Amino acid sequence: MGALFRDPVLFATVLGTNLPFLSMAVILLFTRSKPFVSSRISVCSIAVSAVCAVSLLVRLFSAPALQYQTLWFSSDKLNITFGYYLDPLSLLMLTIVGIIACLVQIYSLGYMAGDPGYSRYYAFQSLFAWAMMNMVIAGSMLQLFIFWEMVGLASYFLIGFYYEKWSASQAGKKAFVMNRVGDVGFFLGLILLLIAFGNLGIPELNHAAVTHGLPQGLLTVSSLLIFCGVIGKSAQFPLLTWLPDAMEGPTPVSALLHSATMVAAGVYMFSRIFPFFSASPDTMAVALAIGTVTMLLSSTMAMVTYDLKQVWAYSTVSQLGYMVMALASGGYVAGVFHLTTHAGFKALLFLTSGIFIHEFHTNDMRIIGKKGGRKLKIPMVCMAIGALALSGVFPFSGFFSKEAILTVLASQPSKIWYAAGLFGAVLTAYYSFRLIFHILLPKGGIEEAHHEEHGASSHEHEEGHHGYIFWTMAVPVMILAGVSLVLGFTEHTLEHFLMRSIQVPGELVAPAAHAVSVAAHVAAGGAHHAHEAGSPLLTILGVSAGLLGIAIAWFEYGRKGASRNGFLSYFPAIWKLFDCRWFLDIFYRKGLDTLVYAGLTSLFTKNDRRVIDGGIDGICVFTEGSGRLFSFLQSGMLQFNLLLMVLGAGAAVLYFVI
Amino acid sequence: MNSLTTYLIISALLFSLGLLGILQRRNLIGMLISVELLLNAANLNFMAYNRFVSPDPVTGQVITLFVMGLAAAEAAIGLSIILALYRKMHSINIEAAQKMKG
Of the spans A64-68, A512-516, A632-636, which averages the highest pLDDT? Predict the structure, then answer.
């Protein structure tokens, strides 16, 4: 306890990460009926957490990685420790989570105003912040896993926040179940490691992987299993359909959990034990393929939907795919950098969408456009900034991180990944600007045209009831827009910061992992390469991919007399394919129906009815029958029975005495 | 006359009376009283042995007190069962209770 107060770093860590839990407890126990108090408690505590996170980042900026740990329990050779691991990666992620959670909670003051579940909302937000922050600074994989599940729980609560709505509760359940599928793999991987290696500490694991302390087979199997967790949490290819459905939650929740931070947890975990993963070339190859497939599939889905939030949801999935691709091809810095910038601009996009949805009470971009979405000038500009960042246009943050990723992909021996990355960039720019143009330049103009003349948007917002609510929502959005503008220029600082603590296998040369080590080494310094020979071409290609996408979107939705239907509407089959999410959900439904419900469930039902119930019923019938057999002795004549008893006792006495 | 045998005979008589009562009375309260007789016969035995065989430790007296407490409890429970039965059957005749046979 004394150490806690003597060491300011430890104090800030413990305070910053656990204050949200305290606020959740206070809200749930005492202030549930007082929404105003609850929200202020929650916002204050998350603000303190964010301040703690930032001060930790500043204080430890050039310090070596710090580790605090105590023994939780030990048994034989097994030691489970509990503690904090503060290295550049976790500090960076802690700061991202703290700041975005803080902004989103401030935003929610306006967005959720008047909701009957206001206190509950803030309690769950605090729960999420607590779990996420603890997950980020976890010192061992087991601790990470525990908070990983907590985060999943918070996500379940928040997706199903409007639980009286059938689709919302279904979506919550779906997200929870699909995540568990991945987590089973994750957990098995951890158990395997625990049995074979006996230690789940993150630095120990990375060190062992780097120094070849683990056999290759074990490494591959366990890293593949752990990668299942990434697939579930970060909505990668086979398990990607839960994320679009998760948009049933309130919009700030989508911004915080389902785009900026929680779904990035999978990618974070990947980079957390990056040396461990990169020591297994097979896993890296699988991850690269999955990342690419995810990225392309979800981009195509985003091209056809008209739901504002769905577009950003698919886009989140595809950007997560980019991050996985970058990490899987060895680009540690590129992946983490994209995670950082994506957290900023995707939170921005969701929060601005939230303002539109709040204003026009619809998710449909066509209706928002018709009703005059562009008259909301601040959100419109901010959303455009977010979309530009997403499309990778200079000088917005997305440009730098996407550039870094494409450079890493270009350094792969096979160019197909690079081509896929470029194609994905075109699609990304296309679907983002399809949305922007839909709102900015709606088909057939704005309906209430006369409003437009005196429609200076700021004037409209100051009309009575909009003032306070609008500004609590607009200020976080503007901050995020500013962040998206400047974050890209921190690339080099960030790179040096991150590279300080990471050990790629290349640093300890060994023939077995040489191929990976070279790839990892080259890619880890991916940003450096951007300024070496051949890189201008890459930059030009990357930027022109983004611009091409925007140009196509302009041609179809922006220019005068454009059809505003999209070229895909000429191919109804493909449209349907994209619109139905490549029939993934239907496939799962069918699989579930035939395999689980018709197959396993009916088998188990039969087993239950016939064997278990039948067995117990049989025992009952036997007992009852044998009881009836002897029940004639029970004549009900009490005194007769007593007489028999006395005679029996007398006979026994006689027998024993004589 | 003041010997162990006297007490044992009296106790045996008491016990036989109780047994007779419990076996042939049709009235439930009568049966309950007979049970008290049985218990008191046992008590008398305990006291007699305590007095004549091992007077120093008071084990017999303690057991007697214990049995008296037990008898009180038994009477309370027995009477309440009889009351419940009376409410159900409107009779405290033991033969009426035969109807409860399963």
Answer: A64-68
Output the six-digit token pair for A486. Answer: 């400047």
Q: Out of A636, A637, A642, whose CB is closest to B22?
A: A642
The answer to whether A139 and A67 are in contact (CB under 8 A) is: yes
Beta carbons within 8 Å of A570's beta carbon, 6+ residues apart = none
Q: Is A248 helix (H, G, I), strand (E, B) or coil?
A: helix
CB contact under 8 A, B19 and A646: yes
Q: Which CATH class is domain B4-100?
A: mainly alpha
- Comparing CB atoms, the residue among B23, B24, B101 nearest residue A636 is B101
Residues 6+ apart with CB under 8 A from A512: A212, A216
B residues 8-67 closer than 8 Å to A (CB): 19, 22-24
- Sequence letter at residue A518: V
Token output for A226: 């752990």
Specify the pTM: 0.74
Eight-class DSSP state of A456: -
Contact between A155 and A128 (Cβ < 8 Å): yes
Quick one: pLDDT band at residue A258, thresholds 50, 70, 90?
confident
Distances (CA, A) of A167 to A116, A160, A172, A244, A247: 19, 9, 9, 12, 10
* Neighboring chain B residues of A636 at a CB cutoff of 8 Å: 97-101
pLDDT, residue A499, reads 79
* pLDDT on residue A186: 93
| DSSP 8-state code for residue A462 | T
What is the distance between the alpha carbons of residues A345 and A483, in angstroms, rounded to a whole number?
8
Identify from A633, A635, A637 which residue to disrupt to test chain B contact, counting B C-beta atoms within 10 A and taking the largest count. Answer: A637
State residue A512 phi and psi, 5-degree precision. -60, -45
Q: Could you say which residues from 606 to 635 on chain A have a Cβ atom under 8 Å away from some Cβ of chain B?
A: 631, 634-635
**Cα atoms in the Cβ-side hemisphere of radius 13 Å centred on B17:** 14
| Domain spans, chain B | 4-100
Most B CBs within 10 Å, among A628, A638, A640, to test the B interface: A638
All residues of chain A having their beta carbon less than 8 Å from the beta carbon of residue B102 are 631, 634
Cross-chain Cβ contact A638/B23 below 8 Å: no
B94 part of contact set with chain A, CB < 8 Å = yes
Complex ipTM > 0.85: no
Nearest chain B residue to A645, by CA: B23
Reported as a single tens digit per residue, the pLDDT across A106-123 is 988 888 888 888 889 999
Q: Which residues in chain A have their CB less than 8 angstroms from residue B94's CB? A: 638-639
Q: Which of B94, B99, B102 sits opposite A638 (nearest CB)?
A: B94
Nearest to A642 among B23, B100, B102 (CB): B23
A203 residue type, one letter: P
Interface check for B1 against chain A (CB to CB < 8 A): the answer is no
Three-state DSSP state, A182: helix
- The residue assigned the tokens 């080590």 is A517
Strand partners, A85: A67
The CB density around residue B79, as the number of other CB atoms within 10 Å, is 13
Q: Are A217 and A273 in contact (CB under 8 A)?
A: no
Phi and psi at A140, nearest 5°, equal -135, 160
Q: A485-513 pLDDT, tens per residue?
A: 888 888 888 887 887 766 555 443 333 33
Contacts of A638 in chain B (CB under 8 A): 94, 97-98
